[in-house]
Write a structure and sequence with these properties.
2 copies of one chain form a homodimer.
Chain A lengths: L2 H16 L16 E7 L2 E3 L2 H8 L7 E4 L6 E10 L4 E9 L6 E3 L2 H7 L5 E2 L11 E4 L2 E4 L4 E4 L2 E4 L1 H7 L6 E6 L5 E10 L6 E5 H6 L7 E5 L1
């Protein structure tokens, strides 16, 4: 049997195996309805209560400015300055509420400006990451670790995960079909009771694909 | 025959049809050797001789600072300031040699800072793009058009194009398998006698994929 005939037969058998409902998709793409909204994160800081007070004074509380897509999370009015061995970045937004550990999320380009190593990590995974100095109106804090470039992730509730056939920790891809088309691989699914459907990417990732807050990407599993 | 058995048979037949040399690739990926080096472009300006003289004085010539990947192209010592309706960007590098028309290539994020519309275009295709004001030590030039966000493209010589089975104007994809994996689609092939193999992306695209000058991407056609 020739190679061409084998290919034809293989294609036919593969289509039969998939069944009529899935006969056409070229990849394992979910139905068109399975798209997710994008939330674009700029550089920002999460503070512990102790570091908040060191930077903004004893007894300091964060002042909510606007709500974020994840329930309970907010952008605060407070801003800090980041000082690295090579450079400085001013007016970096603090997000609330306060956390157990201070964490600084910067863009990859920021790490070059600051003069620190870029470490791509999921939020909360800061062991062994670089530090930086934070300066506020009442004082400064020098972190020995805590600066990450955020890894792409997809927030959702457990119910939304079931609806999309996804599980917590799964790695998926997202397809972008706009002016700067492409595919984001390595997107980590984070299903939690406080989650709401939103794919978090940073400003550089958004700009590379021509995306803005609320843009939609197609899920590819 | 069960669906699973059909799938197994289909997979086996497909592998037989492809032959041993191509038994594993999941997509139409070229052999591993078909990778291309990345050249990362920051924001920069190409000037006409008239605009060079308006900004740097009568009779001004560009002073080469270092050669670029494309033969004859160079980064110049000269730098200008971009002034848009919303903001200013200083110290923007001029590239040489001079061109027939002035063209400003910025990052998508820069267009927000400047307050102009982001227009993704190939170099030289500036009709209908926004303008900006350029300021140099000897004067200013206000462009009515000429500001683009550069579209991803792959430079090569006609001989390299033949070697890779590509043709001028073809649109290809590039696969990134590093820390921030993904695929860049819509990469335009630009084969020319003065071309040398190099995939030009901008700083935001590079950072989104964790790429630096000289990183290699796999061609997917």
């Amino acid at each position: 049997m020739s190679g061409e005939a084998l290919r034809d037969l293989a294609g036919l058998l593969a289509a039969l195996a998939r069944g009529p409902a899935q006969a056409s998709p070229p990849t394992a793409t979910l139905p068109p309805a399975a798209s997710v909204p994008v939330g674009v994160s700029g550089r920002h800081v999460h503070l512990s209560q102790a570091d908040l007070e060191a930077l903004f004074g004893p007894g300091a509380r964060l002042t909510p400015l606007r709500e974020l897509s994840q329930p309970g999370q907010f952008a605060a009015e407070e801003r800090v300055t980041l000082v690295g061995p090579k450079g400085v970045i001013q007016h970096v937004r603090v997000l609330g509420p306060v956390r157990a550990r201070t964490q600084v999320e910067v863009l990859r380009g920021d790490t070059y400006r600051l003069g620190i190593k870029p470490c791509v990590r999921l939020s909360g995974h800061i062991d062994g990451t670089p530090g930086v100095t934070l300066v506020g109106p009442a004082g400064a804090v020098t972190l020995t670790e805590g600066v990450i470039v955020a890894a792409r992730h997809l927030h959702l509730s457990p119910e939304e995960a079931v609806g999309l056939g996804l599980r917590d920790g799964q790695v998926v891809s997202l397809l972008c079909e706009g002016e700067r088309p492409g595919r984001l691989d390595g997107v980590v699914v984070r299903a939690s009771g406080r989650g709401a459907l939103d794919c978090h990417i940073d400003t550089e990732e958004a700009n590379a694909f021509g995306l803005v807050n609320g843009s939609r990407l197609r899920l590819v599993v």
